[in-house]
Structure prediction request, 829 residues.
Amino acid sequence: MIIIEELKKKYNRQSKFAVDGISFSVNNGEILGLVGLNGAGKTTTINVSCGVILPSGGRILIDDVDIVAEKSKASREIGWVSEFPNFEPNTKAIHLMLYFSGFYKIPRKEAFIRSMDLLRTVGLEEDAYRPASAYSQGMKKRLALASALISGPRNLLLDEILNGLDPSGINLIRKLMLEWKKQGKAILLSTHLLGILENLADRVVIMHHGKIIKTLANEEMKSLGSTGIRIRVDHVDKSLEVILSKYGNVRIDGQNVTITNISDEQDMENISSDISANGYRISHLDLEKTSLEDYFLNLIGEVP
Amino acid sequence: MRQILHEIRRALLAKTTILIIIVIILIPALVVATSISSVNYANSVKAEGYAEGQNLTFTISVYVYSGTYGTPTFGETVNLSVANHNYLLTTDVAGYANVTLQSYNASEIGNSSYTYDQVPGDSSTSLQGRITILKPEENPYFLISRSFYGQNGTLYTSRYGINRVPINNEPRIYGILVTYQPSNLSSFPNISMYYITDKSGIPVVEGIRYNVCESGITYINNFSSQQGGYNYNESEMKYFGTFKSHESMVITPVNLTVNTNTSDYIFEFFSSNGTEVGWIALNLTRTTSPDVVNSLFFTSELPMLSLFVPLLAMLSAFFVFGRDRVTGVLSTVIVRPISRRSVILSRYLASVGAVFVASLASLGLSSILFHYLLGTYIPLSSILLSLWALSVMICGFSGLIFFASSIMNSIGKIIATVMLAFFFLDFFWTFYALPAIPIFVSTYLLNQSYGTLEYLRTQAILDYITPSGYTNLITYLQQHNVSTFVLASYPVSEIYLTLPLVLAAGLLWILLPLLASLISFSRHD
Ligand SMILES: Nc1ncnc2c1ncn2[C@@H]1O[C@H](COP(=O)(O)OP(=O)(O)OP(=O)(O)O)[C@@H](O)[C@H]1O
Ligand SMILES: [Mg+2]
Prediction:
């Protein structure tokens, strides 16, 4: 579990706080998305949370251990994937993995087996004996993930982990995250794109200028950003509502009916035929695609 | 602790570190190898003068050759004085200064002498000798001389002089210098050398036990088995070689010293018909005195180390810590279960440890080289003091770069700091380029007159200021005679030059930069 309380961070020789008094927590078995524009403070929040940089105020508890006061203890349960992973020059990936395992007192033999396993998991098995500094951006991300998992930590802080990954990589990571969630790990995931989190995150924290401007639960997100349909029918009654509610959320406003959160695109056609078949006449039909990103931009636009 | 060892091992095996270690180890090897030659060229010169002729016509020859290697000199001026007349003669390519005089009698020639200044005009370096009159003699191995002693025709003297000489590029052993007086002969005869291991215990005087042939005078010991009161069996002597005589030649018995720990030998020389013409007993082992090795070490190797070790220590600090911090590589370590203090401390120990181990290896290697080449190790006290000075430099300079790296956020700035520290705290100090040292210090120093108490104190302070100065400080302590530092007239404490003070001030340089970086890195990111 990651608890962030009134976290503040001002970088050296900067006048503004990069993170300005934010509080939230990531529970065990929860995936929390951290969303914001460039410079919102996501990376800062993650880096402070995993002890890579020092906070200017507030505190962070990792499984109830303060990351500043008891750093070595708290770090034991942290797995971190940096936004721009960078590895020691001229060092082979497998050696880096072994080096990192040394910090957890993992016996060398076991460390080797675990490292090879992880490299296989992230798809780097064949590149294990290449210098990591010569990896491509996506490969570096994969290696960073493998190295974050070496100790099987209970808390994962992943900075833009999907950035630079190919579709198979994105799928892999989604799958892994859902697995970790089942195992009860706490996962903090930052991204620019709200859409990515839609079928993944349990909650989303939206940051702007170092502050949290909105926290959304998964259900709220779903209603916000799904495909919808707006129709006008000659008459509206209860039975129409019953018919339509099996497709999604129905909202009725006079003669206007909005169905949002339609899970299956196929249903779009079924809806109109179903309405007609039940004796209603459609005078107007209009697809409504309010994307999460639209919502997100609107939200930020409202902030002064 | 395990993590610290882990980091140290890793840093030691990093390519850049290995490169740095190699450089530090190679420097003294080169310096030692080149400084050996200065031991070889002990520029001693020898001369022999003789005359031959009759009535009032005498040809006088003074042969001048290197006593070190037996090579003839050329163009040297010899002052010959005969009956209160002086003649200036110059040696030719064969090493001879010749003149034919026609107005002196045998007694005047027999009482004449020559002088040769090794340093022209400096009479303290003069070689002097009497001119010996040689009587023409058919026998190429023996001649009749010193007729003026009244032993005309009754005393045979070998034409050979035998002596011990250092050999060029073989500082560990002596060679045998054989000089020959050709006199009136037109060709040179052969001589054969035999040897036997000497287990006698004849008292050793600087390696030579006994040398009856030195000035070319010996009684003939025809196949005698007794030399210098020591009995041995000449029939057991082994043949070494036959040589064509020359005015001077060096026989190098290198192969005799290989694979044996005996270095005491008796050598005998025989004419072609088996007559002994001379002998020498000598210890072939040549050792250089610890003082010479010490001063070679302090004047050639230590300055080189004090110039390069700080640079390499700073580069190592940059590669091990500064670069990784700026590029974010260090974050992949910081995020592990290790405190920030341990991160910087382990990197510091790794960097400093690597350079220190290299310096230790370097001193050890050069000591072994000195022993191998000159037969003498560097004295232990010098090694220990040097290790202290090197530690001060390594820790001081590494600490500076660790501190700079912990507050700077660009590789360029850190590299600039390395360069500035190198030039202003190391390079200029090592070469005493005073104008480059902060103005107020140098003007203050230049205002003192050389050798005064104030001057010496300021100079000591200058050396305390920078870690590089500690090699100078220990050099003064150990050598007491460094030319830039006249210690004679003042007690060491008066000029702030006591061992406890040097140790204490060095400790500050070891600890302060490290503390500053520890504090800075654990409090700020
Ligand atoms: N090392 C640094 N020194 C000074 N200021 C910094 C540093 N890192 C980040 N900042 C500033 O802190 C603020 C937050 O940056 P941060 O990297 O946390 O944003 P982010 O949300 O991760 O952005 P992005 O989506 O571009 O990754 C920005 O204004 C940035 O300029
Ligand atoms: Mg970021």
